Amino acid sequence: MRPILLQGHERSLTQIKFSHDGDLIFSTAKDQVACVWFYANGERLGTYHGHQGALWTVDVDATTTLLATGAADNTARLWDVKSGKCLKTWEFPTAVKRVEFSDDGTQLLAVTEKRMGYLGTIAVFDIKVDVEAEQSDTPRMTITCEESKATVAGWSYLGKYIIAGHEDGSISQYDSKTGEQLLNVLVHESDMQVNDLQWAPDRTYFISASKDKTAKLISARDLQILKTYPTDTPLNSACITPKKDFVILGGGQAAMDVTTTSSRQGKFEARFYHKVFEDEIGRVRGHFGPLNTVAVHPKGQGYASGGEDGYVRVHHFDKPYFDFMYEVEREHARR
Amino acid sequence: KEHEEALVRREVIDKRKTAASNALAQKEKEEATQKRIRAQQILEAENQRLREEQREREQKRLKAEQDRIRQEELKKQIEDLKTGVKGIDVSEMDLDDLDTNRLRAMKLAQLEKEKNELSERLRVTGKRIDHLERAFRREEAKILPRDYQA
Amino acid sequence: HYDEDEDIDFSDLREQYEVRLEEGLDAFIVIDGLPVVPEESKSKLIKFLLRKLNTVGKTREDAIFMPLNDQKKSEGFAFVEYETPEQAIAAARALHGVPLDKKHTMLVNKLTDIDRYGREGRVDEEYKPPVIEPFVEKEHLRWWLGDPHARDQFAIYRGDNVGVYLNRKKEAPENIVDRQHWTESFVQWSPQGTYLISVHAQGVQLWAGPNWTRQKRFAHPFVNLVDFSPNENYLVTWSHRPIHVDEGHPVLSMEEDGKNYIIWDVATGKALRSFQTIDLPGPAVDEAGNPVKKKIQWPAFKWSADDKYVARMTQGQSISIYELPRMNLLDKTSIKIDGVMDFEWAPATPQRDGIKNYEQLFCYWTPEIGSNPAKVGLMSIPSKEIVRTRNLFNVSDAKLHWQSQSKYVCVKVDRHSKSKKSLATNLEIFRVKEKGVPVEVVDSIKDTVINFAWEPKGDRFVLITTAEVLANTAVPPKTSVSFFCPEKVKGQAIGNFKHIRTIEKKNSNAIYWSPKGRFVVVATVHSQQSFELDFWDLDYEGEKPESEKDLTANLQLMATADHYGVTDVEWDPTGRYVVTSASIWKHAVENGYHIYDFKGTQLREEHVERLKQIVWRPRPPTLLTKEEQKQIRKNLREYSKIFEEEDQYELDSANFAIVEHRRRILDEWLAWRASVEEELRADRKEE
After folding, report:
1. Would the CB atoms of C589 and A193 count as touching at under 8 Å?
2. What gap in Å lies between CA C185 and CA C193, rounded to an integer?
3. Is the peptide bond prior to C191 cis by the omega test (within 30 degrees of 0)?
4. Tens-place pLDDT, residues C498-535
5. A182 close to A196: Cβ distance less than 8 angstroms
6. By the 8 A CB rule, do A218 and A183 touch?
7. Which of C295, C289, C301, C341 is nearest to C318 (CA)?
8. 3+ Cβ–Cβ pairs closer than 8 Å linking A and B
9. Residues 6 or more apart in contact with residue B59 via CB below 8 angstroms
10. Residue A263: is its pLDDT beyond 80?
11. What percent of chain C has pLDDT over 70?
12. What angle do CA C493, C497, C498 make, to 5 degrees?
C-alpha cells in the first residue's frame, strides 16, 4: 500500500472529501485555497480561489456539480466544480466550520462558530443542483445551539434528520424539516469536543471522533451507541469503510500539548479498527503531525488522510487488505 | 576598322583573361575550402576516436573497480560465513564460482537456521523453567495450610 | 477574528476542581467507638460530642452526620466536617483514644486517612469501621502463595488508584483489588511480599490478607520513605521534617519530638527508637551563599541479614550498631572507623571456610588520610573482629557490591592517576567463602565503570563502562557492556574471573538480573534517544564458541526489544517475566507498561493513563526443603505432562470462547442492520 503524497497545500489540512464516484478528491487547508485532485494518480486538477481566511470545510454534491466550502472569513461559498467559478457567497457573523449537502443535493447545511455574542448555529439552504441557477440568499431555516455549540453536523438518510456533534461531547438529532431538537445524548466524555462525524454509505448510522480519545459508531434513528473504539490519543477524524467492515481513525496530540520535545511519530498514524468487533487491525504511519482528517473512497478502494503537516496522503488498498477476514466472517460468507 | 577590331578582340581577350583568372581564383578558393573542411572532418574523426577510447578506458576502470569491490565484498561475506557461531565449511567450495547473490542467500539461510535453533532451544528452556516453578508451587501449596497453623 | 485554534484545554481546570474536592474531604473526620443510640437520642449525643469536637477546632451540629440503620439506631460512628483540614488533623491527633464514658472510647481518624474511599454519598456504604479489626480472626497473610496457576501479582499505582493484579501473560491482568486514594505518595511491597505499604501524610499503613485489610499503622507524620528489615520484623520510617509531637498524642511520645527516623516493631506496631538525621559533612552554603541541598543517605539505617542488628554510619567517624528488638547500642559504644565513607551488610549470613560460629559481616571503606592509604575492611558482628583489610592507592571513590549469598563482595574502586586526571576502575573482589578471604583484582578495565551487578545466587557479573564524559554535549557518551565469569577449574573450587565479551557502542545504562540468575536484561532507561532492552542468557544451551570453552558461561543474546520512554524495569520474583514501564513521575509521554517473557518476547503492551508505579509482589523463600525440591526436579517430566494438558485446555477453551463471542457479536450486528434496512425501505415508500 504505497501512498501518493499530494503536495500543494502550504498549511495544515482541515477536511478531505471524495467525489461520489471516487475519481476526485477535494481538500481544504488553512491556506485559503480549496484543491481538487485525481484519486488515481494524485495529480492536481485545479483550485478554488476566493476565500479570505483559513478554510475549515468542504463538500461536494452527489452529481459532482457543486462544491461547497466554509471558512474563517465568515462565508460559505458555492462553486462550479468544473470551471472553479464561485457561484454564490453567503455571509455569516462568524466562521463556518462545517458544510454538508443532503444525500439528494437539494439542501446544504452550514455550521457557524460561537463568537462575540453570537451563538453557534446550523443554517440550512435550499439548493438547485444547477450551475446556471440563481441560489437563494437566505437560509430556509436556522437552528440555534443554545446549550453547547455544534462543531460538526450532517444529514441522515433521506435527509430526515440533521445530526450534530457538540463541543460538550454530546450529539443531537434535529428534525430536518422543523429544526426541532428531538434528542441530545452525551455520547463522549463530558466537555470532550466531537471533532468529526462521517456517515455509513446508507446514512443510517455514523461515526463520531472526539477529543476523549474514542470514536463511536452511532445509530441515526435513536442515537444509540453501537460500537466504541478506544485509542490512546485525541481523535480528530473518523470514517467508515464501504466494502470491508472497518473504520479508520485519525488524530494525535497537538504539538503544544506534548510535554517533551520527543518527535515520536508513533501517534501520527491512521488506525484501522474492525467496525463490528472493535479490535484494532493495524496502523498506517507517515504523517509528521496529527491527522486532521481522514476520508475513504466511496467504493472502498482506498483512503486519504490530511495532516497538520500540510500533506495529503492517498492510499490505494491492496489485496491483503481485501483478503483480511475474521474466521467468523469467512464462516458467514460461506453460509 | 582593323584597329577597332583589334581593340575589341583585345578587350575580349582581356575579359576572358580576367574571367579565366577569376575562375581560377574561384576554383582555388573552393579547393581550399574543401581542403579545410576535409581537414576539419579528419580532426573531428580523430577527436571522436580519442573520446571513444577515453570512454572505453573509463568504463574498463569502473568495471575493474566494481569487480574489485565485489570481490572484496565477496571475501568479506565468505569470512562472515566462516566465522559466526556455527561457521559453514567453505573450504570445498570454489570461491570463483560464488556470486554475491548466492552468498547472500547462504548467509540468510544460515541466519535463519541460527534463529530457528535459538528460538527452539529457548522455547524448551522456557517451558522447563515455567513447569519447574509451577511444580514447586503446586507442592508448596500443599504445605501452605501447615504454615498457617504455625 | 480568525479562529485558528478553538480547542480550549480544560484539563488543568478539571484538575484544580478535583483537588478542591479532595481538600473538601480533608476537613472530614470519622469518629468510631460511639455508643449505639436510638433515633430520639441522636441529637443529644451529637450535642455532647460537639463540646468535645469544638475543643480542637470549629464545627457545627449540622456538620455532624450520624447514619442510622434499618432499626433506626445509630451505628456507633459519625462523620464530622471541620472548617479546615488542619482542624481535622488536630482532632484526629487530640481526640483519638479519648474516653467518652466507662464503656466507650472515641476512635478519631481523618476520613481521608481511613481509606480515602470514594466520594461523598458512597462513603457510608463502603466504610468499614476500623474498630472491628482486633476482633477479626487473624487472616492467613500468605494466602496469595497458593494460586493454583502459579501466577504472580503486581501492584499498579495510576492516577489516584492503586490496584493489585494477577499476571496473565498476554491476557489483560486479572484485578484482585482496586481502591481509590489507597496511598498518597507511593506504594511498596514488604521484602517477602506479605504487606502492601501505603504512605500518607499521617504515616504508613500495612495491608495484607485476602481482604486487603489494614494490619498495622505507623504514625510518622509527613513520612517520606520506608524501609523494611529483610525478614519483615521491623521497619524504619523517615521524614525530612523533624516530628512535632503534641502533648497527648495517641502513639508518639515526647521521645520522638524533633526526630526524623523511627524504628518500628511490626508485630506490636510500637516505635522502638527514634533518631535525628545526621547531615553529611560539607558546607551548609555554597560559594554564592545559597543553602546547599544536602543529598540524603537512603537507607541510612541498614539491616543485617538476620534482622538482629540495624546500623548507621556517621560519615568519617563511626558506625553505630543497634541490637534488635531492644535497640540498644551494641556494647554501649559506636565502632570508631576513622574516615569511614560507606558500609554494607552482607545480604545473607556468610558461610565462611573454617568458621563454625556464623556471625553477621559488613564491609566498609575509608579514603586516604594523610599518608595512610585508602582501606577496605570486613568486620564480623557481634565479635567486632576485623576479618580482612586491604590497602588501596589513588582512590577517588569506591562502591561496595555484595553478591546475594555473600559469597563475594566486589569493591568497585575508581582510581585516578598521579596527576589526578584520568579515571580508571579496578574491581577488588573479596572471596568471602574462601579461607583467609583472598582478594582477586580485575584491573583490565580502562574506562569508568558506571554500573555493576552480580548475578543473584551466581558467580558472574555484568558491568557497563563509558569513556570520559565530555561536558556540554547533549548526547550522552556511548557505553560498553562487559560480561565476566569464573574460568573452569577442577573440583568444587571457583576459578579466577575472566572477561567473556564486551559489546561496544551501546547506550545501555542499567543492568537487571533475573532474581534466579542466568538471565540478564541490559537496558537504556531514562533516555530521550534510546530505549533498548537486551535480553541475555549466560547459560545458553546451544553450541558454545570455541574461544570461550574454558569459561563457566555460554553467552547468548536472546532478543532486543524497544520500549519507548522506558523508566523502570523489573523481573517477576520467579524470573519468568519482565515488566518495563514508563512512569508519569519521569515524563508524560506514553505512560504504560510492557510484559516480556525471560527471553525478550513481548507478551503484552498496555497504555495506562497517569501510570506512576507497577511493582511485582515479592515472594518469601520457598517452603520446600532441599530434598523436596530435588524430588520435584527428578519428576519434572510427570508434572510437565499435567501442565501441558492444562495449558492446551485453557488455550482451546479461550479460543472457543473468543470465536463464540465474535459469532454472537456478528449476528447481533447483522440483525441490527436488517432491522434498519427494513425501516429505511418503509421510509422510502412513504416519501
Report:
1. no
2. 19
3. no
4. 999 999 999 999 999 999 999 999 999 998 888 999 99
5. no
6. no
7. C341
8. no
9. none
10. no
11. 90
12. 125
Q: Residues in chain B, how many?
A: 150
Residue of C nearest to A327 (CA): C659
What's the pLDDT score for residue C114? 61
DSSP assignment of A104-165 equals: TSSEEEEEE--BTTBPPEEEEEE--S-TTSPPPSS-SEEEE-SSS-EEEEEE-GGG-EEEEE
Q: What DSSP letter does each residue of A21-76 carry, written as one string?
A: TSSEEEEEETTS-EEEEETTT--EEEEE---SS-EEEEEE-TTS-EEEEEETTSEE
Non-local CB neighbours of B89 within 8 Å, separated by 6+ positions: none
Candidate from C542, C558, C643 with C-beta closest to B131:
C643
Look up residue C402 and give its three cell numbers: 555484595
Neighbours of chain C (3+ CB pairs under 8 A): A, B
**One-letter identity of residue C477:** P
- Min Cα–Cα distance to chain A from C457, Å: 40
Contact residues on chain B for C140, CB-CB shorter than 8 A: 148
Asked whether the predicted pLDDT for residue A255 surpasses 80, the reply is no
Torsion angles phi and psi, residue B66, rounded to 5: -60, -45
pLDDT digits (tens, 9 = 90+) for C431-475: 999 988 999 999 878 888 999 999 999 999 999 998 766 666 667
Single-letter amino acid code for the residue at A242: P
Q: Is the CB of A193 less than 8 angstroms away from the CB of C7? A: yes
| Contact criterion met (CB below 8 Å) for C553 and C484 | no
**Nearest one of A190, A169, A182 to A220, comparing CA atoms:** A182
Q: What is the mean pLDDT of chain A?
A: 91
Q: Which residue has the higher pLDDT, A116 or C219?
A: C219
> Using CA atoms, how far apart are residues A239 and A198, in angstroms rounded to an integer?
6
Identify the band that residue A155 occupies on the pLDDT scale cut at 50, 70 and 90. very high
Q: What is the pLDDT of residue C535?
A: 97
pLDDT of residue C261: 95
Q: Check residue A278 and give left, alpha or beta (phi > 0: left; psi -120 to 50: alpha).
A: left
Class of domain C295-443: mainly beta
Interface touch C598/B138, C-beta < 8 Å: no
Give the end-to-end CA distance of chain C in Å, rounded to a whole number: 44
Torsion of CA C427, C433, C438, C439, to 10 degrees: 10
H/E segment holding residue B140: helix B100-149
Judged by CB atoms closer than 8 Å, whether chains meet at B135 and C636 is answered as yes
C337 close to C319: Cβ distance less than 8 angstroms:
yes
Question: Are A204 and C528 inside 8 Å of each other by CB?
Answer: no
The whole-number pLDDT of residue C118 equals 40
> What is d(CA C383, CA C358) in angstroms, rounded to the nearest whole number?
11
Q: Which fold does the domain A4-334 belong to in CATH?
A: Methylamine Dehydrogenase; Chain H (2.130.10)
When CB atoms are compared, the residue of C537, C558, C643 closest to B134 is: C643
Residue A184 contacts residue A193 (beta carbons within 8 Å):
no
Nearest to C659 among A53, A276, A328 (CB): A328
**Which residues share a beta bridge with A100?**
A109
Closest CA to A155 of A92, A89, A110: A110
Q: Of 3.40.50.720, 3.40.50.300, 3.30.70.330, 3.50.50.60, which CATH number belongs to C14-135?
A: 3.30.70.330
Domain locations along chain A: 4-334
| Burial class of A324 by CB neighbour count within 10 A (0 to 12, 13 to 18, 19+) | middle
C-alpha span between A181 and A184 (Å, rounded) = 8
> So what's the ipTM on this one?
0.73
pLDDT at res. C18:
43
Q: Give yes or no for residue B148 having a pLDDT over 70.
A: no
- Amino acid residing at C290: N
